[in-house]
Amino acid sequence: MSDSVKYLLDEEHLPKHWYNINADLPEPLAPVLHPGTKQPITPDDLAPIFPRAVIEQEMSTEREIEIPEPVRDVYRQWRPSPLFRARRLEKALDTPARIYYKYEGVSPAGSHKPNTAIPQAFYNKEEGVKRITTETGAGQWGSSLSLAGSMFGLEILVYMVKVSFNHKPYRRAFMETFGAQCIASPSDTTEAGRAVLAEHPDSTGSLGIAISEAVEAAVQRDDTKYALGSVLNHVLLHQTVTGLEAIEQLQMADDYPDLVIGCTGGGSNFAGLAFPFLHQKLRDDLKTEFIAVEPSACPTLTKGQFAYDFGDTAHLTPLVKMYTLGSGFVPPGFHAGGLRYHGMAPQISHLARLGMISPRSYNQLECFDAGIRFAKAEGILPAPEANHAVRAAIHEAEKCRETGESKAILFNLCGHGHFDMQAYMDYKAGKLKDLQYDEGEAAMALAGLPSGC
């Protein structure tokens, strides 16, 4: 077994295809439904929102989908990303476990999100689109699409969840530096935003609300499309470059993971790492376990209901079958803003329903503690979202210490925390609390799930 700390691939090893897990699901996904007719949606139904190439990928069951050369050319700026063996963390934990992390914070935007922002911008440019609207929670997705828009000459409009807009001014500055317009959501620029403000003037916002505003703004102009940074099939597809690279890098290390871990909000970074390994498990009947980690304050997979629901608060989007807390649910304003989403990717929800992945939730304070322990050992300060994966990896490594097992643990360090220093300052000052989601509010939101599906 290799004694290296980092495993680097040359650009020639950059994947040429994305992996589509729809080709290998033991049972097919439930169809996406039109919100009006409740019938399976058609490509024409999605055409006002997405470019044709994205729609084709969303509905595809092909196992491999080619990555266009212009996309690979941009990927080469930071991909393949490094795989690290966390030897100093292993020593600090006094564990026999072998801990690896795929570090996506090396991208220009500091997270995994450009893996899908770049192709989405490319496909929109190819179709003659001039402007893209989107939402963002913590700002990683908004930053990434702003970067991609700059590279392909597109105008970008970002609705940023208000609590994160206020928490993370430097994320907003990043977007504006690349030419994007960033608006705090809910806003008075859309009917969806004005409706929320009329009922809740002090609303902290949610991804569901921001999605409503972005979709509404997109359909108002013929030269505009909408882009999503997580949840949908095509987004998770684009992220699989992460896992495909990690498979090769672990071969360099002469190792293979017993556990694959990622944080989950909408599901993109977990899927990006896990799906290629899930393919190998399904193909070769391997024993690898998959752990999807979410915040206890927004426990979609662990406490939600598996049902058809809207992806947004104003019910402008198609209906997808997923684990959900209800499209009207507004999570409390914890610092891992990228994980504050009421639903979960249909593919991940489906796999959880089949028992192929194991959901888990942690509180905010224990995740920040884990992130700081990791940073002191490895020298990288994780984003608050990534701290959830770090917490699970440390938990599993400590279990190995108790049992004496030497398991290989792989997790996705999906972004750095350099734009999140206020959160760390608040944590060190004792200002952060373990926020709990409102079970009554979630029950009310779930009571409003669409009927007749």
TrEMBL record:
An annotated GO cellular component: cytoplasm
Coiled-coil intervals, chain numbering: none
NCBIfam families, alphabetized: PRK12391.1 (NF009057), trpB_rel (TIGR01415)
SUBUNIT field: Tetramer of two alpha and two beta chains.
EC numbers: 4.2.1.20
Keyword terms, alphabetized: Amino-acid biosynthesis, Aromatic amino acid biosynthesis, Lyase, Pyridoxal phosphate, Tryptophan biosynthesis
HAMAP family on file: Trp_synth_beta
Enzyme class: lyase
Necessary cofactors: pyridoxal 5'-phosphate
UniProt catalytic activity: (1S,2R)-1-C-(indol-3-yl)glycerol 3-phosphate + L-serine = D-glyceraldehyde 3-phosphate + L-tryptophan + H2O
Role description: The beta subunit is responsible for the synthesis of L-tryptophan from indole and L-serine.
Pathway(s) per entry: Amino-acid biosynthesis; L-tryptophan biosynthesis; L-tryptophan from chorismate: step 5/5
Modified residues (N6-(pyridoxal phosphate)lysine): 113
Similarity annotation: Belongs to the TrpB family.
Annotated protein name in UniProt: Tryptophan synthase beta chain
SUPFAM superfamilies cross-referenced by the UniProt entry: Tryptophan synthase beta subunit-like PLP-dependent enzymes
UniProt cross-references to PROSITE patterns, sorted A to Z: TRP_SYNTHASE_BETA
Organism the protein comes from: Thiohalocapsa marina
PANTHER family named among the record's database cross-references: TRYPTOPHAN SYNTHASE, TRYPTOPHAN SYNTHASE-RELATED
UniProt domain Tryptophan synthase beta chain-like PALP: residue ranges: 77-415
GO molecular function: L-serine hydro-lyase (adding indole, L-tryptophan-forming) activity; pyridoxal phosphate binding; tryptophan synthase activity
